[in-house]
Amino acid sequence: MYSERHVDRIALIQTLRVDFGCSIADIRRLTDQIDRPDARAIDVMQSCQLIATGLRDVEDVDAHRLAQVTQMIREAGWPQIPSIAARALASALEASARAGFVYETDHLVGYARALDPFARRDIENVHPDATLDVLARALLVASAAQTRVFVAMNQLAHTSIAVSRNPSNASG
């Protein structure tokens, strides 16, 4: 008979394989992180967010973009800590700039302030007494779902503004 911990681990592995197409090496990396005696929920959360969003942790990020992210974090009133999320954003901003789309810091601060109440609500829904396997699986599923919603909302906002500016863009 399997213990609840084993069932939770199997559910996590199945989610990683089936829903995210993770390799055995990727699964081992996450489960090894979870199994470390000093494992922290915040580290597991960041790893799961990378898997769910397809972003990568980039150690060598553009210093200017990282400084821009640091300034945005400060202006948003968020804790000034090194994080995978900050490096991932700096990397995404650099890739965007190379493609010709440069985001000003005040634009990023606007995004941060708009997202803040949603992130607070999301974090309040994380059950602190859950095992890291249960937490990881929940974060994977929720982050992937949320990413799809954010992308679709962004698309809807742009479509709506384009139609508002030029009603001939509306299709009947």
Task: Describe the protein.
One of its GO terms (molecular function) is DNA binding. It comes from Microbacterium testaceum. With about 170 residues, the chain is an all-alpha fold. The chain has one domain. Helices cover about 70% and strands about 0% of the residues. The chain has seven helices and no strands. It has helices spanning about 5-20, 25-35, 40-55, 65-75, 85-100, 105-125, 130-165. The longest helix is centred in the C-terminal third of the chain and has 34 residues, at about 130-165. The radius of gyration is 19 Å and the shape is globular. The model has no long low-confidence stretch (mean pLDDT about 90).
CA-CA gap between termini? 59 Å
Report mean pLDDT, rounded to a whole number.
92
General form: globular
The low-confidence runs, each spanning 5 or more residues with pLDDT under 50, are: none
Fraction of residues in helices?
A: over 70%
InterPro entries: DNA-bd_dom_put_sf, MerR-type_HTH_dom
Protein name: HTH merR-type domain-containing protein
Domain HTH merR-type: 1-33
GO molecular function: DNA binding
